[in-house]
């Protein structure tokens, strides 16, 4: 592959050594269209069954497992410079938004591309806070969940249920262009989802506490209302959350509102490309966030620090990490190669929370771990710096949230980012459903063999096939068959 170095040449020239074919591909925004490689075709290498499993005749494919270097969309929402440790939303640095904005204003910025003027800001806040109540039937769905259900399971179920109770918002019932041709319908459901996400989160907390649901208050701010619904003993109590905690949670929500094309956001846009309703797409994105490699990272940090136990045990733990006997959570990032700019802000938020709730005992171990890792060439060389998950878990623990509630506190603000990318996709996308290619490496063509003529396979473990599962409650019935 040869790159033309002439000053005005924004192209790349590729020669297929199999055929000698040369193509010139335009470079736009430091990217090239993957479909250009379809022009590189060769004679199929057919197997004995005359099937070209490599699909050679349709051109060269680009293989990129886990999307390590694949851009699936052009976006105006969020920019990350991983080498500099820089993050901005719609052109505004995250540091400015965290210090000068609040969550609802940042949500408006993400979704609509501009900071709202006074009139728009007032309307936005009024509509969001007056669309916080859940339908009684949705509340019944939430209350039917077990008290020990994971809060994210409750959240995903409730968001999906909200779509079931809103048939007027379903393109499958109202027509495929429901959101692409009706900005008012899109805006209404953006407001409804953002407003109700916090209520769903609070309800999932109340279920596990076996306490009655507390209706939302439209006269409170977004994060103030969330803390009120979770912590109030009753409506009559007149409980008002500590404003230091309200401010801390609001900053954390800004930091978690969007982070470019990550796993859950890619899920949102992928599912959204089918033109399904936004409730279903949000539920799918939340399911992606539920995974321990995504939204569960800050929970893993706390478990790791608890396992370390003391400042004195930090050196030995890091040595075990080097020997691959332990995993180091909360350090490094798929995108950031220097530092996570959010981690600097969140460290300041921690002091605000400690002032209100008391100092989290694990902070001494966390600080010792951070300091030791930043001085160790092994971790510095690999660019393993503390990320946002390293500190956020400590803050949430100090605020009294149970570990399995941490992903909920990630999901609620990220709803704003998911909706922003969904809106951008429908407003400016090419209208095509997302469908990645695959490379088939399986069996060639073969004939079906009737079961009585198949050779017996020895299955010794579940990796080889299906073994009998333990049926503790029906041993008496199964006894004769075992």
In short:
The chain is mainly α.
Structure notes:
The protein is mainly alpha-helical and about 475 residues long. The protein contains 19 helices and 5 strands. The protein has helices at about 95-100, 105-110, 120-130, 135-145, 150-165, 170-175, 185-210, 220-230, 245-255, 265-270, 280-290, 295-310, 315-320, 340-355, 360-375, 375-380, 390-400, 405-430, 475-480, and strands spanning about 10-15, 20-25, 80, 85-90, 90-95. The strands form 2 sheets. Strands 3-4-5 form a 3-stranded antiparallel beta sheet. Strand 4 and strand 5 form a beta hairpin. The N and C termini lie far apart (about 60 Å). The relative contact order is 0.11.
Which sequence of SSEs, written as H and E, runs from N to C? Answer: EEEEEHHHHHHHHHHHHHHHHHHH
Sequence stretches where pLDDT stays below 50 over 5 or more residues: none
Discrete helix count: 19
Gyration radius (Cα, Å) is 26 Å
Strand content: under 5%
Across the major sheet, the strand order is 3-4-5
Class based on secondary structure composition and strand pairing: mainly alpha
> What's the pLDDT, averaged over the residues?
91
Which of globular, elongated, flat, extended, rod-shaped describes the shape? globular
* Biggest sheet overview: 3 strands, antiparallel
Distance between the termini: 62 Å
